[in-house]
Design a protein that fits this description.
Number of helices: 11
Distance between the termini: 79 Å
Helix content: 40-55%
Low-confidence stretches: 1-12, 117-121
Mean pLDDT: 86
Structural class: alpha+beta
Radius of gyration: 25 Å
Length: 339
Amino acid sequence: MVHMAKRDLSSVNWQNSLAGTSLDAAGLIALADLDTIARRTALLGSASFTDALVICPGIHRQQKASDLSKAELPPTGSLTNGYIFRIENQATVAYLQSIGITGQLVTLGVEKLQKRSWYHLWAHLIGPGKSLVSFALILVAILSTIGSVTLLILIEDWWGVSILFTLIVARFLNISLIRWRTMPNWHGVLEPGMNGDLLVLLSQDRWVRMQGSVDALKAVTSGRWLSDMTFLERSLEAIATVLVYLSAVLASNATQSGKMLLIILLLGSVGLLGISNQQQEALYMRGHIVRLKGKPKMYARRLDLAKELIKETKRHDWAVGLGMVKGEEYGERSAPVTL
């Protein structure tokens, strides 16, 4: 009896303590400028509709996914034909930055994903090629949102229900915009049966080699990733952003339990999504997958890398074009190199 009385007293004290704590600013967590959602968008090359049930801070930042590359346009040389160009696909650049290691050459393989009916269903609803661990984490986040809505309905916290549905609608609008902006666009002329080999020079002396068919390499490096928004799309983005801010304003009307539930959901979901992003080691872009191939190789200096690849490819024009070696060393006149 004494033990039960102490337990009841501690429960009452906890409830009183919670009741005396102000959580009116709980909705402000949704306004945190985190790039977790944007980074997931870049890794998947698009967005899946089931992500509308993954509610976490940064919903209003999803259209800024193209900023993850920090406006870097890395010079790239083709080891097979000597052409020099820049990669302007922001998602690809952001991925290369994330896997690049200073002073080391990282090799990537680029492949086309098989077109099967089950894959298209998976890609549209869940997201392409997601690992089992990553999928499990996203599933937990989705179930957490569904469970939170259910609990809010059971305790009749209609303000809390309205806030979550407002965030879900904002999430859905942003996902729809991303899918519209990633519609297929120009990637140059198809070159079936041709293989390519690219060397990408990133900032901070990070070097990445990309190998695969020419068409696969074009799909992930050429053209644009996200198209510029039209007036209608900008209007929808504005509506989605206002909805996120509106949810933060309305959060003060929820019950104390509802506010606590909202805080737990937002913080828990962003943690799950962040871990999921970390588990997603590959990049998915326009029906293609980019992933690590072998282990990184360290070089004492960039010149050693250039000479080794020149010996392997039996051509030096790409190295001269990238400014890695002097043309005079090969009986040519060095042209000005703009990096």
